[in-house]
Amino acid sequence: MTQPCIICVAITGSVPTKADNPAVPVTVAEQIESTHEAFEAGASICHAHVRDDAGKPTSDPERFARLQEGIARHCPGMIVQMSTGGRSGAGQARGGMLPLRPDMASLSVGSNNFPTRVYENPPDLVDWLAAEMVEHGVKPEIEAFDLSHIFQARKMWDEGKIPARPYVQFVMGVKNAMPVDRAVFDFYIATVRRLFGQDAPWCAAGIGANQIVVNEWAISTGGHARTGLEDNVRLDRTRLAPSNAALVRRAVELCEKYERPVASWREAREILGLRMPA
């Protein structure tokens, strides 16, 4: 396989705390430093959440702005992908950072169960978030927690709500949602290729101990991979991950195993059809 593999690092998320792993970056300064290390290790996308002064998830645009500025300064060319996820805010507050014009933003196009609640993504809110992304030139990454979400992305593309061919990420291993199942994974790939074209780029993320499993499935089958402390705080049962960079290096090793080059930030932008930085 000669297609470069894009490695996305999900640096913080909304759930992990320093009690889970002291390496989880919480403040904006910590996030910038952790992202810089991951960038140097091979990540070309930073999937970003921010926290408030108490360490709780927030959609505060000012914090996102400081994080974006720091990444641009210390990781020139790296793709910034901001989260519009539902743990960080409610309603349209979830898209309050989109006027910052990040390169990308996550877009969950349907609802599903999470460990202790329903992850609600009502159609009117999904349409509003998508419209904000169009207005501000932000490319959505479709977070598919269920097969129906891939079909919904195709429907939104047909309707012009997503103007460019969707970039889909399979999320597997969230408790009460889609488990890590190889037959389902293979069907997801086949569905993306059928709905969006044989050459459509896609990504996959595995939660917890399944992170390395899904990383290997994605890298070995021509997809792109997400890693990072948002999804998994451990290297194995006995060792915490010392950093986001350590998890990125683990994905890089899988790229070497399957003889896939790691995408530079330039290659990642070309693959995803993103603008080059000024």
Summarize the SSE layout with pairings.
Layout: E1 7-10, H1 28-41, E2 45-48, E3 50-51, E4 57-58, H2 61-74, E5 79-82, E6 104-107, E7 112-113, E8 118-119, H3 123-135, E9 139-144, H4 147-158, E10 167-172, H5 182-196, E11 202-206, H6 211-220, E12 224-227, E13 234-236, E14 239-240, H7 244-257, H8 265-272
Helix pairs in contact: 1-2, 1-7, 4-5, 6-7
Instruction: Count every helix, treating DSSP H or I runs of 4 or more residues as helices.
Output: 8
Q: Please, how many domains?
A: 1
Shape: globular
Rg estimate, integer Å: 17 Å
Give your account of this protein's structure.
The protein has one domain: TIM Barrel (Alpha-Beta Barrel), CATH 3.20.20. The two termini are 31 Å apart. The protein is an alpha/beta fold. It is globular. It is built from 8 helices and 14 strands. The strands form 4 sheets. It has an 8-stranded parallel β-barrel, surrounded by 8 helices. Strands 3-4 form a two-stranded antiparallel sheet. α6 packs parallel to α7.
Provide a short characterization of the protein structure.
By secondary structure, the chain is of the alpha/beta class. Helices cover 36% and strands 18% of the residues.
